[in-house]
Amino acid sequence: MAKTNKELADFLRRARSQGDPARAGLPADGRVRRVPGLRREEVAFLAGVSTDYYTRLEQGRPITPSPSVVEALGRALGLDETGRAHLHDLIGGGAAPSRHPRPVQRVRPGVYQLLDALDGEPALVLGRRTDILAANRMAKALFGDFDRRPPRERNYARWMFLDDDARSLFMDWEDQARAAVESLRFEVGRAPDDPATLALVEDLRARSRAFDAWWEQHRVHQRTYGSKRLRHPLVGDLTVDYETLTLPGDPDTTLFVYTAEAGSASKRALDLLASWTLAEAPDARPERPHHAPDTPES
């Protein structure tokens, strides 16, 4: 018997429940909606497929729609670019299961040199499932020294939800924590059978009610840029903007660089933090060699 695609079924149901009939251009039909969102037949109509076909998809039946149908479903459900990519991943089954563990992620020497060169700006290297692979001096000063944590604890999502210091640091903690959940959701769609990712999700769901509630919403997000509002214990309130760069040759590794607007109070706070930490540790450099904390199962 073919395996049911439960992740796809859940995602379609929740995306449909968040749909807006008026925004989708559907005329009022006078019927009372018992639950919010779009009806199955409405999604089918907007996507140009039969109601029976869409219903079977939403039940997770083993169906493989054409790329054009997947795009039509994304438009019908009002999905953004990340949501559509997630839908493609789920319908395609994500990455093919492997009998062998994925190789441990390692940071190249050239990336450490880049972190050194960015010493005036906080910079982090994140790997699969938001594992923190490396950080420069300013990132450690701004967020905390992750190298001092046990290898298993060097994970951004785990730190965000299970560490009181993270809750105190982020003035917009809920926004940042939701983004971490939605990023993990997206990654599970790409690699649904990765044991280390599934173990992380299971642990966070068991230990954090907020994580568990947001995981159930099945929203997806890719952090490519944005801002964070911080209340730092040394330099006070500041806002940092971040941009991300996927490292060539390793699409599962991302460089996050944090900056503040020139001449702003936030920039002055960052400069003050830089001067204080430089005075305390003039020879500080990212620890090396460093590899993913989920050895040997990553």
Structural summary, described in words:
This protein has about 300 residues and is an alpha+beta fold. Helix content is about 45%, strand content about 10%. It contains 13 helices and 5 strands. Strand 3 (about 225-230) and strand 4 (about 235-245) form a beta hairpin. Helix 7 packs across helix 13 (about 265-280). The two termini are about 30 Å apart.
SSE order and pairing:
Layout lengths: L5 H12 L22 H8 L3 H8 L8 H10 L4 H12 L16 H9 L5 E4 L5 E4 L1 H7 L12 H7 L1 H6 L3 H18 L4 H13 L1 H8 L8 E8 L3 E11 L7 E6 L5 H16 L18
Antiparallel strand pairs: 1-2, 1-5, 3-4, 4-5
Helix pairs in contact: 2-3, 2-4, 4-5, 7-13, 8-10, 11-12
Task: Please give the number of β-strands.
Answer: 5
- What is the structural class? alpha+beta
**Main beta-sheet strand count, sense and barrel state:** 5 strands, antiparallel
User: What distance separates the N and C termini?
Assistant: 30 Å
Strand order of the largest sheet: 2-1-5-4-3
Share of helix, binned: 40-55%
- Residue share in β-strands: 5-15%
